[in-house]
């Protein structure tokens, strides 16, 4: 491990810009902060996994549609992740490049998790009809 860090450090010193600060030892506070970020990500995934399936099924969708909804998220990530990364790379803010994008995406995730349990009421408010699952017609698997 030490040899690999030495090679990376030597390579960074040969560059025209100074990247040596990236390879320094992290303080305890920095490690706690990084662990906190990872805990937040894991908490979001756990909440999504625990809440999404029962809510989707309680709204009357079949298991087939539920699995399609689960496949929708990684598909969107595959399409939009490069776009968001490019946007983040081009962002110039007093908060830095990553923080504004992370704040916006984090806020969107929290709002989505708060709205998700109220999906049926939101659909009715937007004009959808309250039809029992047994009486639904159309495309169903």
From TrEMBL:
Entry's Gene Ontology molecular function annotations: sucrose:proton symporter activity
Transmembrane segment boundaries: 34-57, 69-88, 100-119
Claim: Transmembrane helix is one of the keywords in the record: yes
Keyword Transmembrane helix among record annotations: yes
Cellular component terms per the entry's GO annotation: membrane
Key words of the record: Membrane, Transmembrane, Transmembrane helix, Transport
Membrane topology, as annotated: Multi-pass membrane protein
Main location: membrane
Tree of life domain: Eukaryota
Subcellular location: Membrane
Family annotation (Gene3D superfamilies): MFS general substrate transporter like domains (1.20.1250.20)
Protein name: Solute carrier family 45 member 4
Lineage: Eukaryota, Metazoa, Ecdysozoa, Arthropoda, Hexapoda
């Amino acid at each position: 491990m030490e040899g690999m860090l030495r090679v990376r450090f030597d390579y960074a010193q040969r560059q025209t810009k100074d990247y040596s600060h990236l390879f320094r030892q992290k303080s305890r506070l920095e490690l706690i902060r990084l662990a906190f970020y990872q805990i937040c990500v894991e908490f979001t995934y756990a909440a999504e996994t625990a809440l999404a399936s029962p809510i989707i099924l309680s709204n009357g969708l079949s298991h087939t549609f539920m699995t399609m909804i689960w496949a929708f998220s990684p598909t969107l990530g595959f399409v939009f992740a490069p776009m968001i990364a490019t946007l983040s790379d081009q962002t110039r803010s007093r908060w830095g490049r990553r923080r504004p994008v992370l704040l916006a995406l984090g806020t969107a995730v929290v709002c989505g998790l708060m709205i998700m349990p109220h999906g049926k009421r939101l659909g009715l408010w937007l004009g959808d009809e309250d039809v029992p699952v047994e009486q639904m017609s159309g495309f169903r698997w």
